[in-house]
Write a structure and sequence with these properties.
InterPro entries: DUF3427, NOV_C, tRNA_endonuc-like_dom_sf. This is DUF3427 domain-containing protein. It holds the Pfam family DUF3427. GO terms for molecular function: nucleic acid binding. This protein has 314 residues and is an alpha+beta fold. Helix 6 links the parallel strand 13 and strand 14.
Amino acid sequence: MQRKDEVFDYKNLVVGNAYSKNEALVTANVRPLNNNKEITGITSFNNCIVLFVTLDKSGKESSHKYNDIFLDNGKKFHWESQNKNTIETPHMRKIFTGETVILFVRTHEKIKSSSQPFIYIGRLSYIEHNGNKPVQVLYDVLDYQKKPNKALSAIYAWEKIDTLDIDNKLPEILKKEKLSYQGRVADVKKKKVIELYAMNKAIEHYEQQGFEVLDTSSNSPYDLECHKNDTIRRVEVKGTTTEGSAVYVTSNEVASACSDECETDLYIVNNINIFLQEDGNYYADGGSVNIIKNWKPEEKFLEATVYRYHLSKK
C-alpha cells in the first residue's frame, strides 16, 4: 500500500509531545519507515497531508533556506514548499482546497551531533498562498495552545535573525504579516530579549575572568570594554537562536575589530531558546558559547548583505 492510500490517524497524537518520524507514523497507525529518506518534508496520506519541518536552516544551501516560521505568537504558520513545487502540484492543490494539514516541527535538526525529535503542533488550516517554486502558504494553527509546554513555547517563539529585519527580501505574505502592528511588536521584543541574554552572559563571563566590565553598546562600535590591571579588551557580543554558523556584523564593528587600538573578542551565544510567556512577553534560556579571541575579521569571511545606495554623491 502506498502512503497516499494509508489513513494517518492523527487523533492518536498529543499536541506538544515529541516524536521521531518513525514514532509519529507508528502512533498514527501507518507503516513504519522503510528508510530515513522515505518521509521527507511533505507527504500525502489518504486523509491528510503531513509536514515535517526543521526551522533552523542555517546549515543549508541558500536555495533550501525556506522561510518556515510561526507568527502571531504561534497562532499562524508561514510555510514554503520545496523549490520544485508550483500551485499546480497535486498536494499543493489539495492544500488550497481545504485538505487537512498536520504539522510536526523541530527547531534544530541536530544538537551536538544528536538528531532531534519533532514536536507535534497539530492541525493547520489554509488561509492564503503566493508565489511559485517555492509556493508560500499561510496557515492558521488550529490546535494552538494558549498555555504551551516548554517545547511548544520555544517553537512558537523561535525566529531566525533574517526574518526579524523587514528590510530583507521576505516573501510577500510573510512581509505583510510582520509589518502588522502585532508582528512589529513581537519582533522588537524578541530581538531585545536575545540581545540582553547574550550581553548578560558575556558580562558574567568576563567578570569571572577578573575584568571590570563596562557596557559601551549605546555609544561605541563594540558592546563591552573590559579592564584588568593594564589590560583593556573590547568585546563584540552576538546572540542567535540558530547554530551560529554565521552572524551579522556592521561595517563599524568590523572596522573597530580590525583597528590596532585594542584587541577585540567576538562573543557568540548560539542556539538560544526563546520562550513565550502567558503575558505575551518572551524570555531566553540555554544556548552555547563560542568565543573568538583577538577577532580580526578577514574579508574572505565577510558577505555583503546590505548596501547603502546614494542617489548622488559629490
